[in-house]
# Entry
Amino acid sequence: MIFLNAFLIALREIRRNLMRAFLTVLGVIIGVAAVITMVTLGNGATEAVKAQISNLGSNLVMLRPGMGFGPRSSSAGVPAFTLADVAALSEQVEGIAAIAPVRSGSYSTISRQNARSTSVTGTTVDYFDINKWKLADGRLFTESDYRIGAAVAVIGNTVRKELFGDEDPLGQKIRIGNAAIEVIGVLAPKGQGGMGDQDDTIILPLSTLQRRLAGKTSEHDIGMISISAADEVDGARLIADITSLMRQRRNLQPNQDNNFNVFDTRQIADTLSSSTKMMTTLLAAVAGVSLMVGGIGIMNIMLVSVTERTREIGIRLSIGATAREVLLQFLVEAVTLSCIGGLVGIALAFALCAILAPVIQVGFVFDPKINLIAFLFSAVVGIVFGFTPARRAARLDPIVALRHE
Amino acid sequence: MSTPPDNAPVIELRGITKTYGRGDAAFQALRGVDLVVRRGEFVAVMGPSGSGKSTLMNILGCLDTPTTGEYLYEDIPVHSLDNDQRALLRRHALGFIFQGFNLLARTSALENVELPLLYRGLGRRARHEKALAALTAVGLPTKLRNTPAELSGGQQQRVAIARAIVTEPTTLFADEPTGNLDTATTVEVMNLLVRLNTELGITILMVTHEDEVAAYAKRIIHVRDGLIASDELNHRDIRVP
# Structure
């Protein structure tokens, strides 16, 4: 009863001064909205990365030169792979369904209409299967194209749009670096990935890239080896087999670290999603600070409000309000305000996520847990920061309060 | 509830003193006041500023406590009540009117009058009915939705009176109720107080420094230097027109 009463009185008080109420809770609104938006979009980004990785194929294994993986990796001074490595892996490791040498570089590409810088990959025919590329138009290059190093290329959808616009690219020549290459096929789009636009790519035979595009010194180097595991193969065992063969081929002593990396798509997914999760946590923490500041804002305005409303408190005391009721009124006012702020913040976050999710191309999944947490936190903010002003109001002497100008 | 006889004492003060400060800085505002006010009386308390009349009224209104002495309000020992108990006594038995009206700003007349009922825990409908009745009794049944800023001084004081009587108090404390009003509205408000006293039998204690205002009371007390200097019945016959 006494709570209901205090709630009623507090609601009247809030309604009596809507502008003040709005300014008081603005901090909480922004804080709650920020926390929820950050976490929701962060989760969306993590999901998007996972989806992209699984799009690559679950049984993809990659072999890269270099020490370590992720932010601490280094490829300086580490030997590159050769076609002999590819042949050895293919022959000696069991469970490899397909294997493709990959060499990529960024080259300026020029068509009759346009010019741009694009990632160019030289590889073998198996590469398309391993990476789940599908053909939209034209044809892929063949074994014989590969053998003779034919000047042919298959282009991604972004390259098609940028270099040819609405024109049919098939049979047209593009200049890549210093070589003139004929477009023989267009790939079906894969879309944006966690690793950039996958469709911004040109794929041609490795022999063509080595002979026509690469400089003399690195003619035979291979940047990466792409492997697809056979369906029933255990990923961890395959990685172990590949690792031991490569260590043997490179004459690494037991006390030496690997100077190459073998990883499958699950590891990439884990690494990428753990880094987006870390970003999400960080952003949420920053947003949490703003919620905290919002709470201090409530305390500030409530304290000012107690001084400003001293006479009103005197009136209430003189007509028979007890100190406890005044305390309760101010506390309920603060909590009601911050809870309303929390609800408005949730609504704002919902709107923000709905607008922003498509823009930054992540999914929008309403997360009841974070919404509940943010709301409860806003209520706690109200109690914690509402208490000091409320106690100050309750301790006023009715005579002094009534005389207050 | 049994109604006490008409002339039963409502207020009994015995040897009330009030001292502010301590030691050398101590100042004795009241120096042993004895006073009996009976049901239905209309008492004017007069005296120069610094005489102790405000201190006396604060103690009588249960807003302040005496340093020594006994205060019985309808046989309740007010001098030994704590803050909350005195708040409850104010809520249930006393009404207050102030010089500055002391209405809540930006709040309608109706809501101002409903306020004490809210603390009494009355339901919405009962609150509304009682507040409407009180505002009608003070002659403002058409100003329910107006905020204090939209009302004249006399109207504001009448809203304040409605707020004071809406709880049907036994005693009404009026602190310079006409201090901020012009002559015409003073007459209006004083006639209203006289009517509440004679028709509803509400005991009224009023502080004033104006003889014309005090003249409406049935009994006039002069306070000087913390003591009651004179206490006499007022025979001037002013009746409600």
About this structure: Residues 79-258 of chain A form one domain. Chain A is about 55% helix and 20% strand.
